[in-house]
Amino acid sequence: MSHDRKRRGERGFTLPELLVVLGILGLLAVLVVPRVVGFYSKAKVDTAKIQIEKFGGILDLYRLEVGSYPPQDDGLKALIEKPADAEAWNGPYIKNDDSLVDPWGEPYVYRFPGEHGEYDIYSLGADKKEGGDGEDQDIQSW
Predict the structure, then answer these.
(1) What are phi and psi of 121, to 5 degrees?
(2) Which of the residues 74, 101, 129, 133 could staple to 78 if both were Cys, CB 3.0 to 4.6 A apart?
(3) What percent of the chain has pLDDT over 70?
(4) Which 3 state secondary structure label does DSSP give 58?
(5) Helix (H, G, I), strand (E, B), or coil: what is residue 121?
(6) 1: pLDDT strictly greater than 60
(7) Residues 127 and 44 sit within 8 Å (Cβ to Cβ)
(8) Which residues of 14-33 are buried (b: 16+ CB within 10 A; e: fewer)?
(9) Phi and psi of 115, rounded to 5°?
(10) Residue 36 pLDDT > 70, yes or no?
């Protein structure tokens, strides 16, 4: 019987052992979390760049089929819903409205005719203002 009691008393961790483990986990969190957040921010910028590049190819296909890029009034919605004056429209070219929204929840800006090319597509980034660096930078098609 004394042998069973001895075993029961040896089970578990002591308070100092738990505090050391929690301290190590806290230190790891302090070192790792900022790096993960940085990667997440960069991933959003990269996603916006890829989406804008994808729009370029889709708009070129639209122009080949319809004869011109979507008018300013129709915007990128013309890739999902047939505009009234697009006789040869063969869409939808994009599956849903969610594709027209940047990683920060704002619609991509489409301008036709463009100031920097035949058309302009851009996102204002996380700060939703022109200019900025990092995640706040503008992502543009030109």
Answers:
(1) -130, 135
(2) 74
(3) 92
(4) helix
(5) strand
(6) no
(7) no
(8) eeeeeeeeeeeeeeeeeeee
(9) -90, -20
(10) yes
Token pair belonging to 137: 């930078």
Dihedral over Cα of 127, 128, 133, 137: its sign:
positive
Exposed/middle/buried for 50, CB within 10 Å: 0-12, 13-18, 19+? exposed
Q: ω before 107 within 30° of 0 (cis)?
A: no
Q: Tell me the Cα Rg of the chain.
A: 27
**Tokens representing residue 74 in the block:** 């129709």
Tokens of 79: 């890739």
Phi/psi of residue 101, nearest 5 degrees = -110, 135
State both tokens at 101: 């929204």
Looking from the CA of 62 toward its CB, the CA atoms found within 13 Å total 26
Q: Which residue do the tokens 């900022």 mark?
A: 34
Calculate mean pLDDT across residues 63-70: 94
